[in-house]
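Hi V.,

You were right to ask for the full record rather than a summary. Here it is.
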Amino acid sequence: MHSTDTAEVVELQPHKRVNDILLGPIERPILNWLVKRMPLWVTPDILTGFGVFAGLIIFISYALTVYHPGFLWLANLGFVLNWLGDSLDGNLARYRHIERPKYGYFIDHTVDALSELMIGIGIGLSPYIRFDLALLALISYLLMSILVYITTYVKGVFQISYSKIGPTEIRAILILANTLIFFIGNPRIDIGFGQLTIYDHIAIIFAAALFIVFIVFTLKQASEIARSESHKSR
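Predicted structure:
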């Protein structure tokens, strides 16, 4: 139970979006072109549901790679479709001036968590990576998501990207990894105390990088918030 007797309740406020990603110069013109030509019957809710459906495609595709590596291409298609649904829903709402800030924030990020869960478990069910390492990578990604949501709530800054890396870049990395594995296989590398596949190494590097970013930005944001509240109390 959380008590509000001694804690200040912070209202969710209109937030500033920060999406300074590496692929932004390519992504933004594509999204702008698409929203201007989207049929009227396509709504932001439909696009959100489409993104979740794409997450299910990715989950099934990875699970089916136990039978044939060709399903990696279906997973790649799923990542493209997931990007379209996830990126276009909010952009379409803003373009048509039909934003529902609280509803959109709630629905978008709860279904994002569902998609992330399906993708992480699906990767773990594939023969290319240890299940525990896939879950470790998933946990690190969810930690970053939590940091984004809390920062939005407390500071009114919705920071999608960190160090030029955002969800779009992560999808691109996974597509490249799938393509690499399809063409060269997934050889095991002896690291002295065991053998890990290429995909295992990718998961470890991914998880470690996100954990470091999580710790660094958590400390940075906490310090900034503490200073701002100290100034207000004077």
